[in-house]
Design the sequence.
């Protein structure tokens, strides 16, 4: 069978809506990958434009257009939507399907990620954070990515999935390849390896269920009491692996990079160490300003959207970082205001696919920052940075050297 | 005055609970909003209004008690 969800040529796109933009490519001299997006706005490109790069795709820049796309799965589907387009892409559960099919795995996962469920993880997260930070707090610096921001969410993933801590280095290795490799052969082999790991994990949890997410997923049953298709179980594991590691790592990198350069912000967070509610509201502003993900959708049929003609299977990339600085929604959008009162950012998306791990992600970041500031109240950027940065659907840094 | 939630629009961001836990919580199954005190006391009005304005889905609104 031919792959029926690949986009066609772009002869329906008027020339004035075409912009040459490759979001995987960060030009030399740019030190912050988020800036390639904000540069589009500064250049005054059309708020809905088409780039022929990466297989060709639309980019939405306005908050309202992005929110409308998130909310309208009948026009903008997540099913078979990767950029660049790939035939027969794994159908992640539940993220890779639209309502109502989406609701099946969403309902399985929802109780595991509610604010209540996440609050119960607090002690474990604090313990993990404290022990990682105390491993280097007495040195005079660290590589924040390797020493903390990669290990912390990956270790959390292992714990939530009922896997032993000893497998941390193996998971760091496979996730690094998963998120950073651009070699097609390496990527295919890596995906195969991840499926093998998930296969073994879910089979083990089927035989010996524990008190963990993998056990809940593998033991779930439909209304007739039947198990779900095995491939959907594996792809639910793949989603949780793909969605919860790199995003948290890079959001943390952005936040610590900012704090390293702002004595005032460090002071404000230290002042809130005994007021978790105020601490969390201040974190919310850093979530707004440091949205590292761009999200993919696929046009389900030919239609006109906000005066622009889209064709079936056209890819659409929604820029959360640009939406979060839309002046029609946010007061003084470029300013980082840790006391911002109204902050409807879309860092976790909106609509039915709202990031199910948002409460866990925020709690991971909040606990990490609290523990960090208690052990390392003052820190700065090491002037000798390895300036390896990357664009793509999750943007960030390969190294972030801090010193104190 | 009374605060009401539209559970079709709510996607469980729980921003309301962060801002005003005296009035809002989140259920343990679907993770959607529970309005624990729809008839909130006057001293919480500012916080409730902030919770309403910070809902990313526009799922909360304040209505006159008689209309609710």
Sequence:
């Amino acid at each position: 069978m031919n792959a029926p969800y690949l986009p066609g040529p772009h002869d329906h796109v008027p020339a004035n809506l075409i912009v040459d933009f490759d979001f995987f490519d960060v030009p030399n001299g740019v030190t912050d990958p988020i800036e390639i997006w904000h540069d589009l706005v500064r250049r005054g490109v059309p708020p809905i434009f088409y780039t022929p790069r990466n297989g060709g795709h639309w980019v939405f820049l306005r908050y309202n257009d992005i929110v409308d796309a998130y909310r309208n799965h009948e026009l903008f589907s997540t099913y078979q939507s990767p950029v660049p387009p790939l035939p027969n892409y794994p159908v992640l559960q539940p993220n890779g399907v639209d309502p109502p099919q989406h609701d099946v795995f969403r309902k399985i996962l929802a109780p595991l990620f509610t604010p209540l469920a996440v609050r119960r993880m607090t002690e474990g997260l604090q313990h993990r954070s404290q022990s990682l930070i105390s491993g280097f707090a007495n040195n005079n610096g660290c590589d924040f990515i390797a020493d903390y921001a990669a290990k912390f969410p990956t270790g959390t993933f292992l714990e939530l999935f009922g896997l032993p801590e000893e497998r941390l280095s193996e998971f760091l290795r496979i996730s690094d390849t998963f998120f950073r490799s651009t070699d097609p052969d390496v990527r295919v082999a890596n995906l195969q390896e991840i499926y093998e790991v998930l296969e073994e994990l879910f089979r083990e949890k089927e035989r010996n269920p524990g008190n963990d997410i993998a056990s809940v997923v593998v033991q779930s049953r439909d209304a007739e009491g039947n198990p779900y298709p095995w491939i959907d179980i594996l792809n639910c594991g793949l989603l949780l692996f793909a969605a919860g590691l790199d995003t948290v790592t890079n959001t943390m990198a952005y936040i610590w990079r900012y704090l390293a350069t702002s004595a005032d912000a460090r002071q404000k967070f230290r002042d809130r160490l005994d007021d978790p509610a105020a601490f969390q509201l201040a974190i919310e502003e850093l979530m707004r300003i440091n949205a590292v993900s761009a999200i993919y959708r696929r046009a389900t049929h030919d239609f006109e959207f906000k005066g622009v003609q889209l064709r079936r299977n056209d890819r659409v990339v929604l820029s959360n970082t640009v939406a979060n600085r839309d002046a029609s929604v946010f007061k003084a959008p470029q300013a980082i205001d840790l006391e911002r009162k109204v902050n409807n950012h879309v860092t976790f998306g909106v609509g039915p696919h709202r990031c199910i791990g948002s409460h866990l992600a925020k709690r991971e970041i909040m606990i990490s920052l609290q523990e960090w500031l208690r052990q390392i109240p003052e820190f700065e950027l090491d002037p000798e940075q390895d300036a390896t940065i990357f664009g793509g659907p999750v943007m960030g840094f390969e190294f972030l050297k801090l010193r104190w | 005055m009374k605060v009401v939630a539209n559970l079709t629009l709510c996607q469980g961001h729980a921003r309301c609970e962060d801002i005003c836990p005296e009035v809002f919580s989140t259920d343990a199954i679907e993770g959607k909003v529970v309005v624990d005190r729809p008839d909130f006391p006057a001293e919480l009005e500012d916080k409730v209004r902030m919770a309403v304005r910070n809902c990313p889905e526009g799922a909360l609104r304040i209505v006159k008690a008689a209309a609710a």
Observations:
- Residues 178 and 188 of chain A are 9 Å apart (CA to CA).
- Residues 184-207 of chain A form the longest helix (24 residues).
